[in-house]
Design brief:
Number of strands: 13
Order of helices and strands: EHHEHEHEHEHEEEHHEEHEEEH
Distance between the termini: 30 Å
Number of helices: 10
Structural class: alpha/beta
Strand order of the largest sheet: 2-8-7-6-5-3-4
Strand content: 5-15%
CATH class of the largest domain: Alpha Beta
Shape: globular
Helix content: 25-40%
Radius of gyration: 22 Å
Length: about 375
């Protein structure tokens, strides 16, 4: 059988030269090019007004790269502080009335759930929760909950918990029949899996995981082809194209694009990092990236299953991506055992998760499996 080698060379991500990085679902590794990006930011900042102009060029570059990655327009992209803020901004643009409902599922990260719980506690809306069965969460488990009072269907493209990848087309089609807003969190897919942004109203994402950026920027992409832009729940000087209008003490005039969601300066160091990361990722054809990740996650699912681990991640390639998780009551301890052997996974919440990206290959899976075979008895799967 042909070995799967990393697509991204170690020169681009030098931290993997002496460790196995399977931690990307929680945090991507720094790239070699990041040091130059931060140096460029600091050098530009030292140039006063000219530095601000340089920042604006990099910011525009980033919007363009994100738009191309999502198949959207640059004007659809807002740069906020993180994905959780993006989710809250969207939640507070919707006029929810008592008796309305929001459809979620039980494989979601808290930030996809909490804004709607807050609104439910405050205003009497109904939260409808689809439940997974085994390693699956069939589309009809979600669509069967949608009715004429559904205002939002919110879900992660790929689950942080199990690695389940939703059928976005089917969920979106059911929501469209009742006019519900479709909100997709692409935090666990954007950067390694094609994200069908054309099928949804809003995409949100973090920047420090699969996109390999840093902390301090969240993506809010509003699909203006499907749904008009709303008024934002908060405004600031970045929400408007001109802060020095003659009527600025009487009125404000919002951007006619997604920048209306931005209230103040973003994290420019993170913008430099993320623009550099996306430039690096753009060297790879998206289908090649997808196929690489699916080949690795497919092998890992199979190998873990044969060793007796209780998989949370489905075997079917159409329903998985880069995250592979299995049940264990000792997730944190197991992650610590692996970290001592320079193999970095995420553990906790009754599971261990390994995340596979461009810089991973079969050798990394071999290292993980070899370490798991050496576990002390109390950390091994129950027989």
């Amino acid at each position: 059988m042909t070995r799967v080698l990393p697509l991204m060379p170690v020169e681009d991500v030098p931290v993997v030269a002496d460790k196995v990085w399977l931690f990307t679902g929680a945090e991507g590794p720094p790239l070699a090019a990041h040091e130059e990006a931060l140096s460029r930011y600091l050098a530009n900042r030292a140039n006063a007004s000219a530095g601000r102009e340089a920042h604006a060029v990099v910011e525009a570059s980033l919007r363009g790269r994100l738009a191309r990655l999502l198949g959207m327009d640059a004007g659809d992209i807002a740069l906020v502080s993180n994905a959780s803020e993006a989710m809250n901004l969207v939640a507070h643009t919707i006029d929810l009335q008592s008796g309305d409902n929001v459809v979620l599922n039980d494989l979601e990260f808290p930030s996809v759930v909490q804004p709607w719980l807050r609104l439910a506690m405050d205003g009497g809306i109904d939260i409808r929760l689809a439940s997974h069965v085994g390693t699956g969460l069939p589309a009809d488990a979600v669509t069967s909950l949608i009715d004429e009072r559904t205002r939002v269907v919110a879900f992660s493209h790929v689950s942080f918990k199990s690695g389940w990848r939703h059928d976005v087309r089917e969920l979106s089609a059911a929501a469209d029949k009742v006019g519900a807003l479709v909100l997709l969190d692409a935090t666990q897919s954007l950067g390694v899996m094609p994200v069908p942004a054309e099928l949804v109203d809003v995409v949100v994402s973090s920047s420090y995981k699969w996109l390999l950026g840093g902390h301090g920027v969240g993506v809010l992409a509003w699909n203006r082809r499907r749904r008009p832009l709303p008024d934002p729940p908060s405004v600031g000087w970045r929400s408007v194209p001109d802060i020095f209008t003659g009527d600025r003490f009487e009125a404000y005039h919002l951007h006619d694009d997604a920048r209306r969601f931005e209230v103040g300066y973003p994290s420019f160091p993170t913008i430099y990092l993320l623009d550099t990361s996306l430039a690096t990722l753009s060297r790879y054809e998206p289908r090649a990236v997808r196929d690489h990740v699916l080949a690795l996650s497919g092998r890992l699912v199979e190998e873990l299953s044969t060793r007796g681990w209780e998989l949370l991640t489905p075997a079917a390639p159409e329903h998985r991506a880069g995250n592979v998780a299995f049940s264990t009551p000792n997730g944190s301890e197991l992650a610590g055992f692996l970290a001592e052997r320079r193999i970095h996974c995420w553990g906790g919440d009754g599971r261990l998760r390994a995340s596979l990206h461009l810089f991973n290959g079969d050798d990394d899976i071999d290292s993980l499996l070899g370490a798991l075979d050496e576990l002390p008895p109390h950390l091994r799967p129950a027989e």
